[in-house]
Every structure is written in structure tokens, then in C-alpha cells.
Amino acid sequence: MQPDFSFPLPIDVLRDEIARMLRRRNVIIQADTGTGKSTRVPLWARTLGRVLVIEPRRVACTSLAGFVAESLSTSVGRQVGYAIKFDHRFTENTEIVFATPGVVLRWFSENKLADFDVVMIDEFHERRAEMDLLAALLLKHEQHRLIVTSATLDAGKLATYFDAECLKAVGRSYGVTISHHARDPQFMPTARDLDVRIKALVVDALARGGDVLVFLPGKKEINQCQAILKGIEAEVIPLHASVSDHDRHRALHPSSKQTPRSHANAQSDHVQRVVLATNVAETSLTIPGIVTVIDSGLERRTHQRNGRTALALHAISNASAKQRAGRAGRVAEGYCDRMYGKHAPLEAFTPPELEREELTETMLAAAACGYPLNTLPLLSVLPEKSWVAGTQRLRAMGAVDDAGLITAHGHVLYPLPIDALFAHLISGMKDKSNQEAMCDLAAMLQTPQKVWTRKSGDESLDTFTQWNKYQCDVVTSLAVIREEQPDVIDVDALALKEAKQLSASLRDALALPQREVASRFKREAFLKNVIDVAPELVFVRRERRQQAFGNGMSEAVLSRDSDFPDKGHAAIIFDQFHLAGKGSKQTTSYATCTAPISLTWIAEAGLGEEQIGERQEQNGQFVDLVKTVYAGRVVSETARFAEGDSLISAFAERILSGDLIEGAGEAITRQVTYWNLYQSLDNRASSETVNAQAWLQQVLVDLGVESAEDLALLDSDDLHFDGIPEWEFDDFAQKYPLMLQLAQLNLTVEYNKAKRTVILHHHSGLRKEGPKRWELPAWQGWRVQYKKASRVVDVK
């Protein structure tokens, strides 16, 4: 079937040249938005075989498939189809398939995309991590003809990277008048009073005629602007990744009988539209009828900060600003109102995701496709910290081996359409009930939008805590997805629908029953199973900073989205997000899904370190007070009879204190102390300083002491320390005494060889004045000082 090209597009002039180039090598097409590259080029490329078009966003995938199918006068799913998460419409005979990167990566891991001849990577300038990985995999594999489209990147650099010819298409424009609304030319984009400032610009833009497209950083800002624009004489339409099909259709299709107008006095019988959109409208999608673009200059994106991936508001790049302005001027003279200064110091390009996000998922995807990520010809340089962290996580899960290749366990994790951590948790659940619960919880947490919120107010909180006595977010989340929640829980229907789809997909993949016949959830068994599989998710509350929780490696604070109880001391934190703090390196992690647990569970799971505290003797037996410490908190205390090393340590302590084997402790202490001094002063040996306690413990072990009965067979001669030779000991001790008894003054003696100084410390005695030099040993060549309290004086 021949396509309908009755509506010409700027890209059409390159049709023959593109077809000619594709027959012999890869092609780079640099084209502005609206040139038709996403819809025309796949149709031309199908002469070389089956075409796969990789689109970065789901909305673009389904919309472009519909547009191209319409141009062929066919329905979606026949000659033209799509494949996105949870939804696909195509057959093995479909000539052109639009698909998102995640779907394509899974196909590549299965058969290296053997079902396709031509692969088109659309909007490559967005530099999504999955797009960069796919580009590197395709170059490594060298089995497909590649088409790469980019609106803003350096075409010469891309041509070298892809070994491709480069073509440029210029979009049709009626001209765009750009205005900057800022108090000075270098004023950067800001979120302050954003909705109020946008309302004023929208009112002015509607007066010009035509529809208005407003670029905002996220759903939160879209909702705020939607609220403040109520009452204006225009149809206000949200457009972001999770909007309903109805809203998406309203945004991408003109109102009935809509006639674009370029002047305020133009007449039309349609209602004007104000589309409030995220970056989803920046590329790929063409929104008809737009006369004015209002650019907030903001986007919400991730970046690397202090070793973590933090989400924050950022000023857009100059490349993005150009893209946004290009959405106006398609059907008539256009306008772009920028809410920042003309000379605001914006970045040239948005940094690639591989350089600003964690690499765990990308590394697992690469390994599943047969290659360690760092062996692929990537366009970006991988950050060292992110690479090390990702390697450690995947190895800890057992998903990759030491060479970075995928393991059998990794092959189990990767096909599940969720993050590797949740896939790892699901695979580690011991029984069907726990596995079902983890599938449902993962589905709730992997849904981009928050599915539920608790109603505010004390009455609602009382009702909630009566129903969920643990104040456990896991209990609430599972109740919501299984539709068992009380009325005090508000649910986002669209987000819940997506969560249910993901849950169903996971349950199907693991041959588990569907939610309607789900197994009964057993909270304690489930959470203890989680601790066994992923102990790093266990956090304890800081004793001094009650809002902060730590696990010994990182710290998180409770977010307002969590219902964690005020008196809870420990938690499993299933989900966090990171926000940039005020300092240049400060990052705050917020816990959004928590489950309270008992401190004793931590000790029972074998987490933390045991520390021997107070030791007591009861009826001739030694009893240790053993503390288990996890992330700086004591999680359990138990008393138990000393045994093994602890018992030997107790025997050694009692011997040195003189309580056991009379005279042995005093002799050992004296001999060891003089030996250490002997080595230090006369340099007759190079061994390390001897610790009396450690030496005695080793001697007791060597003598085979295991009980009090064994110890009773020893006497002081068995514990003799061979230090200074006997024939030399008395002379050395006289020359370098450790204690001095003078008239009404007792002193301890310290020798500092480095400074050739003898320091006499006041020990006891009624004498007020210090020692005299004539009272002391000769100590030729040594400086002598007397120290009492904090006062130090030279002894003359």
C-alpha cells in the first residue's frame, strides 16, 4: 500500500537521497522538530526490509504509529505497529514497529534483533542511557542498517561515531518572535511564583489567538498551573507521561472545526487550548495549532551528586530551549515567551544520562545482551564512582560474575520489567505468599506516579492507625493494589491501573495466581524474608537525630509520604529518592516506603557486630554481657557464659589483676613493661611492642587451657615471660626505674626516647614541692620534667 503524501513535509525533498544512502551505509539525519523525519523516513526505509523505530517515550511510540498507519490507510497493528511496556500491537508481518528502548533491549538480549533489517534511533540527542546502550550494541553487532536522527547534537561527531553519511533537513517555519520575561539579561529560570507568572503570560498569549503550549518541569507544576488557570476561556489540557488516553488525544489533536489564527481579531468557532506539558512535548510529538510557546526554562532531571543519583529542578540547556521554541510557528507566525534572561548562562547541551545516573540497570542490560558495559563502544565516558557502585551491587546480588558477564541468576532478574533490586527480592522470596506480595509491592513502587495518599487530619490518622496498627507503608500499598484499603486512603485511579498492569505482568512471568486469588499476606514472615535477601535495606533510627536512619553505609530521613510511627526504632526502607541539598556536595535521601521492624529481628538475622561489654563472675563462672551493634545502635543485649576466646580473655584479665595465680600477674606486667622499654631505649630488638593481655591469652591457648579446671593446674612458673635476660634485668631496672619513692612523694616514670626526656608523673604523697635533681637517678644526657595535674616544669 502506498502512503498518502498529499500533505508535504520539509523532509520530503531528501527522500531520494536518503534512499540512495541507506543502500550503502548508515545515515545521520539532523532535522528540526516538525520536519517529518519520525513519520516519513521509516516508510522510505522499509524497501530494505523490516524497520524498527526506537522512540524514547511511550506517548511518542503510540502516537507516531497511529499517524504512520493513518498515512497508509490502515489500522495500527497491521503494516504499522508499536510495542511499549504492557502493550503491543504488531505481528510478525508488521513492516514498521515503533518501540521504546526498554522493550528493544529485551528483544536484543533474546535474538540480537534478528527480526529486523533497519533500526532507526529517533531523537538520539536526548541521550537516554538505554538509547546510548542500544547504539553501542548495534555498532558492536554490525548486523543492521542504522538511521539516527538528532535535532541538536554535533552531526559531524555522530557521523564519525556511527560511520555514517550526514544529511540535514530544515523545518518549515512562519517565524517565531522570542521574548524574554526577566528582570535582567542574565536572570536564570526559577520556580518561584511559577504558576502566577505563567497565568499572566497565558492570558496575553490567548489574546494573540491560536493555542498555547506551556513547558513545565513536572506533574506537580502542571497540577498547580491547571488549578490557577481555572476559569479562563480556554481548554486547559495536561500532557505528561501518565496522562489518560483521553487527555493525550485532546493534546495531540485539534478541537473540532479548529482554525489556527495569528491575530487577536481573527475569528474562529473553536475553543482555544492551553497545553501544559513536560519535556514529552519537546521532541517527537507535534501538537497542532500552537501559536505561542511559554517556556519556564526548567526541567526535572537526575544528576550525580556525592556518589548518588539525585533528582532536582534544573535549568534547561540552550539546545532544549531551541527545541521548545521550535514548537511554535508551524501553522502561522509564532511566539515564544521565555521566563528567563536573554543571556542566562544555560548549558549548551543536557548531559547524557550515562554520565549523571546510576549504572546498575544499564550494566545488567548490557550483560544480558552479552557484553560487559565497559567493553562497548559508548559515546560517553562512564563515571568511575557509578561504575564501581553498579559493579558492587550486581555482584552482591549474584547477577554478574567477576568479568561482568551475566550469571544464571542475572538471566532470571533481567526479563522482569522492574529494577534489578526488586527482581532480586522477588527471586529470593521463600514461598508463594511472599513472592506474590513482593510482586504487588514492586509494582506499586515502580509505578512513576504515587498511587495512594492518606487523607490529612487527626480523625483520619486515628482511623488509619486503628486499621494499620503497625503504620506500615507495605501493608497500605498491598491493600491498595488488592483493593482492600479503608476510605481514609485516596487512590489515583490511573496510577493504580498501571500498577495493576505491572503486577499482572510479573505474576504471569512467574506463573503466580492473579491478584483476585492472592495468597494471604503474612507481614512478619514477609519482612524477615526481605531481611535475609537484602540486608542492606535494614535501617535503624539515629539516637540523636530522630528523623534520620542509617544502615552503616548510607543515611535516609523520613519523607512526608511515609507513615512510619514516631516510636519506631528500625525499618526496612524499600524506596528512596535523593534531592540535592544546599551545600555543593550535600545530598539528602528521603525514605518513601518503610516497614517498621523490631530491633531484635536485626540481631536474629545475624546483622551487626557483637561487642563484649561488662563481664561478671558468678559462682566461679564468667558471664559476658554481649551487645549486638548495628549502624551505631545497640539492637540486642544478652548475658551468656563466657567461652572460647571470651573465657580465655577473662582468665587473662583475672591473672593480670592478681585475682588468679598469685604473683603471676604482677610479674608478667613488670617483665613485659621493662621488655618494651628495653627495646625502645637500647634498640636491641626490632619486634613490635608486646601487649601483656594479648601475650598471656596466647600462652593460655598454647597451654591448652579451656576451662577453670585446666587453669587450676598452672602456677606462675608456667606463665613466665622471657624478655630481658636475667643477668641483665636487675641492672636495667635500676638504671631505668618505672616507679620512684621519694620522701613523701611517689612518682611514675615515662621515657620519651625521641625527645630524650624523662617525665615524672605525680602519683601520690603529701609533699608539696617537686623532686630535686640530686634525689633522682643519673639519667645522663636526658632532660627531666615533673608533671602534676596540667603543670609541667623542668627538674634542675
Tell me about this structure.
Pfam families: DEAD, Helicase_C. Keywords: ATP-binding, Helicase, Hydrolase, Nucleotide-binding. InterPro entries: DEAD/DEAH_box_helicase_dom, Helicase-assoc_dom, Helicase_ATP-bd, Helicase_C-like, P-loop_NTPase. The chain is of the alpha/beta class. About 0% of the residues have low confidence. The chain has 5 domains: about 160 residues, 3-Layer(aba) Sandwich (Rossmann fold), CATH 3.40.50; about 180 residues, P-loop containing nucleotide triphosphate hydrolases (Rossmann fold, 3-Layer(aba) Sandwich); about 110 residues, no CATH class; about 80 residues, no CATH class; about 60 residues, no CATH class. An 8-stranded mixed beta sheet has the order 4-3-5-2-6-7-1-8, with helices on both faces. A 6-stranded parallel beta sheet has the order 9-16-13-10-12-11, with helices on both faces. The relative contact order is 0.06. A hairpin with a 2-residue loop joins strand 24 and strand 25. The chain is about 35% helix and about 25% strand.
- Could you give the count of β-strands? 31
Termini separation (Å)?
A: 112 Å
Identify the CATH class of the largest domain. Alpha Beta
The best one-word shape is: elongated
CATH superfamily of the largest domain: P-loop containing nucleotide triphosphate hydrolases
Number of helices: 25
Q: How much of the polypeptide forms β-strand, as a percent range?
A: 15-25%
GO molecular function: helicase activity
Pfam family, one: DEAD
Protein name: Helicase-related protein
Keywords: ATP-binding, Helicase, Hydrolase, Nucleotide-binding
